[in-house]
Amino acid sequence: MEEFKVRDKTIGAQGHLQIEWGATHMPVLNQIKNRFKKEKPLKGLMLGACLHVTKETAVLVETLMAGGAEVALCGSNPLSTQDEVAAALVEKGVHVFAQRGQTTEEYYWCLNKVLDYKPVITLDDGADLVGTLHSKRTADLPNVKGGTEETTTGVIRLRAMEKAGSLKYPIVAVNDAYTKYLFDNRYGTGQSTIDGVIRATNTLISGKTFVVGGYGWCSRGIAMRAQGMGANVIVTEVKPLRALEAAMNGFRVMPMVEAAPIGDIFVTATGDINVIRKEHIQKMKDGAIIANSGHFNVEISIKDLEALSIAKRKIRPNLEEYTLEDGRKLHLLAEGRLVNLSAAEGHPSEVMDMSFANQALCAEYLAKTTKLPPKVYTVPTDIDENIAELKLKSMGIEIDDLTEEQKKYLAAWEMGTT
Predict the structure, then answer these.
(1) Where in the cell is it found (predicted)?
(2) pTM reported for the whole predicted model
(3) Which of 61, 84, 180, 307 meets the CB 3.0–4.6 Å disulfide criterion with 15?
(4) Which domains, and CATH codes, for the chain?
(5) Residue 314 in marked binding region
């Protein structure tokens, strides 16, 4: 079998520096790595991972290998791989199949190369690895003990598989851990999305009307950070409770068709398809900027944008200008792919520290657990709380402990008003 396929295996030196920088800012994962070195909880296991190939992912892979695992890795998005990191991981003995700028065919070729290694545990970001196993590689399913899923979009797909009775092995929804979505999704996506928009455009955020599609945890973070930079933020939603929360948080809430004519910058992060489509594109003002931070490039209807345009040109990296029939120009960032990883570097290492700590500890949990029914599981509470404790410790923060009296009070029902 091929051991790896990366763009340039000679550029690993810069990748090693990037990984070192990431590890410096991931103290929780480093503590887990040190324990894994001693205990080897993953000894002899082949792990197959479909994740964004970044310096933070590299620190996770190093942790898994410290635990005794062998790792095969592919990218979870055609534009998110950091080629120098991929090269450095090859030098560390990882079976890497990833490069930035892949075609769809190349993307799935790499994914299948990972599956050729017959992983016992899968680590996924978007559920493409799981989806391929269940559709094209069913003969390999009996070899898989369990898996993890990193992102909201992937969990949505996996819960649909479970509901349909199609899921054949247990998956731990890392995305649903408190130490993941409250921090990674909100603060990580918020900061990295704004970073991606600015790197692609160098536009001023302050004073702009900034339209956020959705108000899940990722969108909350985007709206919060855009507001913090001086934007006038509009939120569009389909769920009444989320729309109400956005309104109570001080954002204007309206349908996308009403936001389209007044928005300057549009960012989607819903996990659904065609959030921005023909009827919205037709109403957008000249010069509008359109981007997506959802996992797949389906939230903006590129098909509709292409159909309504008479010309297209690349203005700068990750920025394409579409000219409509009436002369209006709209600007699409990063081909509609997740702008925070395609046009920037993704989430900061400090927040990925907790997310990938969940990945490492859930892989250990699956390795040690007897066979689970094929369902989507939440991260065990003790893992979630342990990660929070480790993060607080790394930040030099101490908290109170319950007294025996307080524990007794919380465990009883008799005492009320005195």
Answers:
(1) Cytoplasm
(2) 0.92
(3) 84
(4) 12-180+347-394 (3.40.50.1480), 187-342 (3.40.50.720)
(5) no
